[in-house]
């Protein structure tokens, strides 16, 4: 019974949130247009996605790599049992 | 999985060079065609997973893979710091292409090593 | 084309939820990953499509199948004394009946039983080996050791309680976890 009431609550709040968001008519996407138009001239890459994640937003790639290292540390730590050589 | 399948253990050693070539192609042409470092790294990681499918009882040593991965992460940190964050790339635009290829290669090495470490660690060490 | 692929997605998801066996669900999830990679391509995102095809179809499916396989094996250590170990025709009817009940339980839960007959005593088995159950057959009753975190232990207790033909009383001991 409790689960059903929680599910109903989530559903109703989701519907309310969808219906109450309004998108303004004139949305200016200045920076994305700048990226699409100037990517080849500034970076020399035809693929816009590559130019974004390697030149324009390099910080995100950097911390993504760091987070990957943390997840590997977590997996290795959680699967160590006694009797293993700890260097492996 | 007591008896190994002959079909897999005899065809996979023939096909894995093509998978490796395909992965390197995705990585190196990351700045022209869709692809890039992350996708190519995942393709190369699937080769080491294939090695598990051929013979599930062979244990691979993880020490070399871990050192390679740490080295790749260090280079990912250091190399663009000198190139991007000091804004040299506006004065020498001819090095842009090689910078992109080098960064894609480093990212793919890191992702491939990382995924294979996670997989091997899970599969071989979780039983104890 | 896009609408067709989306409908196939919903059908595969419904199949995944309502299937009875786990292996079928894993295969449906693999097909789901493949279809959604195709949908990403139809939405003009080829990089995401490549990554999803590799990670969702290959890596994730293999990890699930390996995990299912590892939990399938059910190891039972059977402690015998020295003379019973050398002459295995001494096995009594209770022993055979116990074996048959164990096989019936494992067949019901889709496990693979692996019975190891050993001469070591219980403490060495607890310290050195990986076990699911340890069975010791004494004269008047049978003692079974099991780890309390092994969730199959409760279902085994319920199963043996419901078997009224088995006359010998069974004593279950739960091993405490030793943290060093």
TrEMBL record, chain A:
The chain crosses the membrane at residues 61-80. Keywords: Membrane, Transmembrane, Transmembrane helix. The keyword Transmembrane applies. Residues 14-77 form the MrpA C-terminal/MbhE domain. This is MrpA C-terminal/MbhE domain-containing protein.
UniProtKB/TrEMBL annotation, chain B:
It is found in: Cell membrane. Residues 12-116 form the Na+/H+ antiporter MnhB subunit-related protein domain. The keyword Iron-sulfur does not apply. Its main location: membrane. Pfam families: MnhB. The chain crosses the membrane at residues 12-32, 38-54, 74-92, 98-124. It is a multi-pass membrane protein. Signal peptide: none annotated. Keywords: Cell membrane, Membrane, Transmembrane, Transmembrane helix. Belongs to the CPA3 antiporters (TC 2.A.63) subunit B family. This is Sodium:proton antiporter. It comes from Fusibacter ferrireducens.
Automatic annotation (TrEMBL), chain C:
It comes from the Bacteria. It is a multi-pass membrane protein. Its main location: membrane. Pfam families: MbhD. InterPro entries: MrpA_C/MbhD. The chain crosses the membrane at residues 26-43, 50-68. It is found in: Cell membrane. Residues 7-71 form the MrpA C-terminal/MbhD domain. This is DUF4040 domain-containing protein. It comes from Fusibacter ferrireducens.
């Amino acid at each position: 019974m409790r689960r059903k009431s929680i599910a109903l609550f989530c559903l109703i709040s989701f519907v309310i949130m969808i219906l109450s968001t309004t998108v303004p008519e004139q949305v200016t996407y200045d920076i994305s247009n700048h990226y699409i138009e100037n990517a080849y001239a500034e970076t020399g890459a035809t693929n816009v996605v590559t130019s974004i994640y390697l030149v324009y937003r390099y910080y995100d790639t950097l911390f993504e790599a760091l987070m990957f290292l943390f997840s590997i540390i977590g997996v290795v730590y959680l699967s160590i049992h006694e009797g293993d050589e700890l260097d492996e | 999985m007591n008896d190994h399948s002959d079909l897999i253990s005899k065809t996979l050693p023939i096909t894995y060079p093509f998978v490796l070539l395909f992965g390197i192609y995705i990585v190196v042409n990351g700045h022209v065609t869709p692809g890039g470092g992350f996708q190519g790294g995942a393709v190369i990681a699937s080769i080491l997973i294939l090695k598990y499918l051929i013979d599930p009882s062979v244990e691979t040593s993880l020490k070399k893979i871990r050192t390679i991965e740490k080295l790749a992460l260090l280079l990912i940190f250091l190399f663009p710091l000198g190139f991007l964050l000091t804004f040299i790339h506006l004065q020498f635009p001819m090095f842009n292409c090689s910078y992109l290829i080098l960064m894609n290669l480093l990212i793919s090495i890191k992702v491939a090593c990382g995924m294979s470490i996670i997989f091997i660690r899970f599969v071989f060490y979780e039983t104890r | 084309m896009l609408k067709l692929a989306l409908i196939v997605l919903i059908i595969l998801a419904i199949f995944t939820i309502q299937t009875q066996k786990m292996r079928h669900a894993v295969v449906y999830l693999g097909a789901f990953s493949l279809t959604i990679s195709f949908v990403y391509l139809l939405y003009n995102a080829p990089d995401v499509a490549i990554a999803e095809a590799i990670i969702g179809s290959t890596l994730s499916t293999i990890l699930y199948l390996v995990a299912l396989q590892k939990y399938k094996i059910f190891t039972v250590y059977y402690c015998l004394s020295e003379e019973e170990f050398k002459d295995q025709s001494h096995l009594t009817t209770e022993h055979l009946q116990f074996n048959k009940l164990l096989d019936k339980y494992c067949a019901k839960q889709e496990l693979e039983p692996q019975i190891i007959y050993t001469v070591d005593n219980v403490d060495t088995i607890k310290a050195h080996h990986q076990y699911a159950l340890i069975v010791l057959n004494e004269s008047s009753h049978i003692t079974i050791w099991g780890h309390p975190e092994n969730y199959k232990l409760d279902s085994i207790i319920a199963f043996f309680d419901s078997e009224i033909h088995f006359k010998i009383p069974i004593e279950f001991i739960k091993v405490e976890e030793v943290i060093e």
